[in-house]
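16S rRNA (cytosine(967)-C(5))-methyltransferase (Intestinimonas massiliensis), 446 aa
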Amino acid sequence: MAGVQSAREVALVTLSACEKQGAWSDLALKKIIREAGLDSRDAALATRLCFGVLQNKLLCDFYIGKFSTVKVERLENRVLNALRLGIYQMAFLTKIPASAAVNESVELARKYSKNPRSPGLVNGILRTAARNLERLPLIDRKDQAKYLSIRYSHPLWLVRTFQSMLGSEETERLLAADNGEPATVAQINTVRTTSEQVLETLEAAGLRAEPHPWLSNCITLTGGGDLERLAAFQEGQLYIQDAGARLAVLAAGPEPGMRVLDACAAPGGKSFAAAIAMEDRGEVLSCDIHPHKKKLIEAGAKRLGLTCVQAGVLDARSRKPGYENAFDLVMADVPCSGLGIIRKKPDIRYKDPAPLEGLPAVQRAILDNVSAYVRPGGVLLYCTCTLLPRENGEVVDAFLDAHLDFHPEAFSLPAPIGPVEGGRLTLWPHIHGTDGFYIAKLRRRL
């Protein structure tokens, strides 16, 4: 990107794009890093700064508000983000000297603000904060929901929602997990290679990788970097997929020779997991409503060498002639609020909750429609990457009430999860170490 030269500038521009243009941080960050030409070290710093501010934005604003004579909401967007970057570095990144954090934020304000007073304002606020790092202002704990909202930078409505489900103590553990730094999880393409071979390849390349602690043919990678540049990735030996999504496919139980429909597939991870479990024998029809995503699925299947995966375009809410009773397994990973993947997409917590109200109707419509594609005796898998009951259990309950030919079926997953007798499971970041994920396995009666 013209004019953007440093990791802190990349973080600032990305944060501003998220707020002013509604960009998603992960996609915007990758694009801006690439355009700025950052090396791997600076790219890692830009990522840590951007995600760190997003994970702690409300807390940073709380501190800024205590040290500023100007109200936070009146500060210019890029000036505020320069302040957030400075506060975050001083409060959370102990290896960066406070003086460097102050000076860099002042320079960002000088470069990106049109107001000549902005550098002085940023300098004054951050130097005051630097003098008070050992005694930062305390958050009032009288209102537990407000305390948790500020302390862990989750909007108040979401904190209260989780409290109603979990209580305050467990909610705090969940919020803390949302703000953690999860390792990247990769699934091994056992059609082409083995976990042992991939681990050897990655070790030779100087990467830190190890077997997943309880999920076979799955590894964890730490240290960041552009994984798509790895030879193991380019040669189709692995693909990036959280353990939660892999567990959903394990619950569904695809087998060689099956005919499978992945009705809301892009970018195709569950389709690939199913094809690998099927030893690339059978048929996996991997569909999405957006035509341009068909190419993403095709590219992924080609890279992995999975010939049984065929990509298509499908509106999962509208009946497709010829699909009725045609599939042994139908997977419906429906559009959802995404509130189970906050630790991967920290900005998702700040999105307007109003549009989320209409999601259950869309989810029910998809489930109602694609259930007709399951052959008698076949399996319908419903899953989401959210934790809200109205998008999970309540949708499944409504479906089962209207479709008496389907019933929940027990499944078993690796320890520490084990048997799931009721056929439904919620995975929690703070309990299972996975993304937040909901899985329901439904069997159609013969």
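The mean pLDDT is 95. Residues 40-55 form the longest helix (16 residues). ok done for today
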